[in-house]
Amino acid sequence: MLESIQRTAAYIKNRIGDFEPEAGIILGTGLGGLVKEIQIEKQLMYANIPDFPISTLEFHSGKLIFGTLGGVKVVAMQGRLHYYEGYNMKEITFPVRVLKALGIKTLYVSNASGSLNPSFKKGDLMIIEDHINLQPQNPLTGRNEEELGPRFPDMSQPYRIDLIAKALDIAEANNIICHKGVYVGVTGPNLETRAEYRYLRIIGGDAVGMSTVPEVIVANHMGLPVFAISVLTDEGFPEELKPVSLDEIIAVAQEAEPKMTLILKELIAGI
C-alpha cells in the first residue's frame, strides 16, 4: 500500500507543481456545488490518476479539485467511493491516504443521510459528533503499515470537538438549523426497512448513511483531524415512513447545500 500511495501522490504532485493543500474535502451525494466556491487552480480526473479508484455513480463527478477556499488552499474530492459499488474498504479509503501524503492537515467530510431522530427534519444539517459502524469490513484489517499509523488506533474522539463547536457557532450566527448527533454507517445500497430504522434509533443513531465511517477511521489511523457534516435528505421514522427516490434525495441535498457550503467555507477559513 505504501508504494501505491507514494506513486499516486508523486504523480499528483508532478501535475499540481508547488501547490500544497492545507485542507482536504470529501463531497457527498448531491453536494458537489461547493466546488463553485473554490478558486480552482487545477483539476484531475480520477481515471487519469495511477491506482486511484473510479466512482461508478453517474451523479459523482470523479475529480480532484485543487484551489483556494476562504483563503485556504484545499483539495476537494468531487465524488466519493462506496462499499456497495464493489470496492473493498482499503480501496474506498485509499484517496484519504493520498490526501494525507499530499500534506493536508485536516479532513472535512460531507454526506447526504437519512434522519432517525424525530427532532431532526428533512433539509436540516447535522454535524457528526460520533458514529456507529455497521459496515461489514474495516479498512484497517490485514497487515498494518506502522508508517501510516498504529495497529490499534484510539477512536474515543474521532471528530474534532473544537471544529464542532466552531461550526455550531457559525450556524447559529447565520440562522441555520444545525444539529449534532450520531451517524450510523451501513452498507446500502438499499434504504432501510421500518424495523431497521427502529433498530438504528434504538442503538443510538440520529442519522444513517452509506459512507463516511471508513474514511474517518483511516483519517484517525493517520492522526488526521476530522470534521463531518450531513445534509438530512429523508426521514426514517417508522411510524410515518414514506417511499423515497434518489431524485428526491438529491433534490433535498442540493436545496440544503448552500447552508452546508457556508458553514464549511467559514470553518475552513478560520483554521
UniProtKB/TrEMBL annotation:
Q: Which InterPro entries match?
A: Nucleoside_phosphorylase_d, Nucleoside_phosphorylase_sf, Pur_Nuc_Pase_Ino/Guo-sp, Purine_phosphorylase
Tell me where in this chain the Nucleoside phosphorylase domain is found: 24-269
Name of the top EC class for this enzyme: transferase
The reply to whether Glycosyltransferase figures as a keyword in the UniProt entry is yes
Q: Which GO terms describe its molecular function?
A: purine-nucleoside phosphorylase activity
The family database entries (CDD domains) matched by this protein are listed as: PNP-EcPNPII_like
Pathway(s)? Purine metabolism; purine nucleoside salvage
**What does the record give as EC number?**
2.4.2.1
Alphabetical keyword list: Glycosyltransferase, Transferase
Judging by the UniProt lineage, the source's domain of life is Bacteria
Q: Which GO terms describe its biological process?
A: nucleoside metabolic process
- One term under GO cellular component: cytoplasm
Q: What is its biological role? A: The purine nucleoside phosphorylases catalyze the phosphorolytic breakdown of the N-glycosidic bond in the beta-(deoxy)ribonucleoside molecules, with the formation of the corresponding free purine bases and pentose-1-phosphate.
Q: Which NCBIfam families match?
A: PNPH, PNPH-PUNA-XAPA, PRK08202.1
UniProt family annotation: Belongs to the PNP/MTAP phosphorylase family.
Annotated PANTHER family: METHYLTHIOADENOSINE/PURINE NUCLEOSIDE PHOSPHORYLASE (PTHR11904), PURINE NUCLEOSIDE PHOSPHORYLASE-RELATED (PTHR11904:SF9)
Q: What is this protein called?
A: Purine nucleoside phosphorylase
